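Q: Could you write out the predicted structure for this multi-component system? I'm mainly interested in how the pieces pack against one another.
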Amino acid sequence: MILKNIILENFRNYVQETVELNPKINLFIGENAQGKTNLIEAIYYLATGRSFRNSRELEIINWNKDYLRLQIKFFKKSVNREFFIDFYYDKKGNKQLKINGIKQKKLSNLWGLLQVVKFSPDDLNIIKAGPQERRKYFDLEICQLSPDYYHLNSQFYKILQQRNILLKEIRDKDKKDDLLEIWDEQLVKKGSMIIKKRIDFLKKLVPVAKNTHKEITSQKELLDITYNSVLIDNPETDIEDIEKKYLLKLKEERKQEIIKGVTLTGPHRDDVLFYLNGKNLKIFGSQGQQRTAILALKIAQLKLFSYLNEEHPLLLLDDVMSELDDYRRQYLINLIQNNEIQTFITGTNLDFMKGNFDKRGIYLVENGNIKNLGRI
Ligand SMILES: Nc1ncnc2c1ncn2[C@@H]1O[C@H](COP(=O)(O)OP(=O)(O)OP(=O)(O)O)[C@@H](O)[C@H]1O
Ligand SMILES: [Mg+2]
């Protein structure tokens, strides 16, 4: 996948900026608070329909303006076609998405079109934060690979919400609990599909992550990543198994669920655990070990996406180069260069880029303006 250009209009601190991009490495250099992360965020937004910052959605619109527009042109090798995305969003909440000039009914039509792998210091939270953060990360990556998964999730969460309302009504308004049966059936069906999809994704991703981890730690430590659910006792379970267990669990927990007014079991409660030499990385890992595991995870994602889609996703590296040691940084740069992966790197200086690379991809970011230094 090759991003040719991006036009940012009123996106965060950008007012009107057009950037022609390099097909290989693009380096965005600038002082703090100039707009480097904002640019990465804009690309990410067009791939996923959401920001990676924990901010209110409207905040992506420039403070002094009442709408934003993002336009992007890219080439997909796998289908040998150029795509043009045009996204408009205003402060009243109106959104409009056009793909190749055609108005789209749903923003979710973005899924699967432009694929990205993003790596920034915040990603350490995938290990450090609670299960919700990990579910969010893995779910989003599965959505990028199969847009159907997004719809499956929306359906599941709607059912879950309805079921929780009913649980509370049974508790507070003496409604009959046999009304739950119909919701249980639907919850089990969609929930089991989600769990199965997650397990299948991990089955593909984990071996690649383990190998990558070995390579970047010179075989010293062994990484493992497992799916953690009360509904799974072995990774080979099939969907019928999960459904059976899930239904049984709902029956067992019904009284408790009515008292609490929430659904206690399902994909919304599951977790993904990271281990290093058999020890839980979240609890026992050092900061450096956690960071290395995340690096291995992101590289694995990059390799897996490339393999499954028969083309490379865009690689977005926000502020991470300066945090890696020489060996890991060089591993990453070699991978990018040997495979010609279009990459977007931000930093406050160029010190981390040694050796040969295309100087035409160097940009200076200053107060919402982007200047290509290589072309001058
Ligand atoms: N909606 C908005 N409208 C205008 N400016 C905004 C908006 N949201 C954020 N900003 C500003 O954008 C500026 C640049 O932010 P950005 O995070 O891209 O900086 P950066 O170049 O990545 O800096 P650092 O090196 O510190 O990571 C900040 O000063 C921030 O206040
Ligand atoms: Mg930044």
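A: Regarding packing and overall arrangement: Residues 12-13, 30, 32-38, 59, 61-63, 319, 348, 365 surround adenosine-5'-triphosphate (ligand 1) (CB under 6 Å).
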